[in-house]
Amino acid sequence: LRIEAINIYYKDHLTVKGNTDKDFISISRIFYGGTAMSTYDLPEKIGQWINSELYNAQLYRVLSRSAPGDREKQILEEFSDDDQDTADTFMKMYKKMTGYRFIPKPVPIKENGSYRSVIRKRISDEIRMSKMYRNAYMNMQNNYPLRRIVFSAYHSCLEHAVTLLELLYDK
Fold first, then answer.
1. DSSP assignment, residue 22?
2. How far apart are the first and last CA of the chain?
3. Does the structure show a pLDDT above 70 at 51?
4. Phi, psi for residue 149 in degrees, rounded to 5
5. Alpha helix ranges (H) inside the chain
6. Does residue 159 carry a pLDDT above 50?
7. Can you give the pLDDT at residue 110?
8. What does the pLDDT read at residue 143?
9. Mean of the pLDDT values across residues 10-23?
10. What CA–CA distance (Å, rounded) separates 53 from 89?
11. What is the pTM of this model?
12. What does the pLDDT read at residue 40?
């Protein structure tokens, strides 16, 4: 491939054109965690987010069964629904980007310990996930539909962390 022209626009989009249309390469660079990621790597990252959200949805559903009260049970079931909705939204984006339906990997729930210890661990997990989504959002410049979904996931993680703190210390 002989580079004939280079066109850089919107700060993160690089277009390289060769001698023929066959040589045309267009790479949208999306920065994630300080590292450039091509659009060809992005579906893999979305797949990881889907699996994570599905795991969380399943965990909150299981955790709601051992909740000490109706209020806690209702909140954990809402978290499960939130995470399932987020996973479904990511799955739609995955299909839109790749043309294929995402097949999630089933992961068994491995959280051991008392209800309170699992809630404590979930708080730190939600904060860790919010940071991951925040970094993805901040570094995603030109994929606005996906950026909105990532922001929603970021907000949801923060909301879950704060509400879990309230559940843990509201007695």
1. G
2. 67
3. yes
4. -65, -45
5. 42-65, 70-98, 115-139, 144-169
6. yes
7. 82
8. 83
9. 41
10. 11
11. 0.76
12. 53
| Tokens standing for residue 137 | 């959002």
Tracing tokens 């790479």 back to the chain, one arrives at 27
Which three-class secondary structure state does DSSP give residue 143?
coil
Q: Which token pair is 87?
A: 């996973």
Q: Which amino acid is at 154?
A: Y
Return the structure tokens found at 12: 């993160």
Torsion of CA 81, 87, 93, 94, to 10 degrees: -150
Q: Report pLDDT for 139.
A: 84
Q: Output the CA torsion 26→29→35→41 (10° steps).
A: -70
- Say if CB 66 and CB 76 are below 8 A apart: no
pLDDT of residue 39: 52
Question: Measuring CA to CA, how many Å separate 170 from each of 5, 64, 164, 165?
Answer: 62, 17, 10, 8
In this predicted structure, what is the pLDDT of residue 126? 97
Q: Are the beta carbons of 164 and 123 closer than 8 angstroms?
A: yes
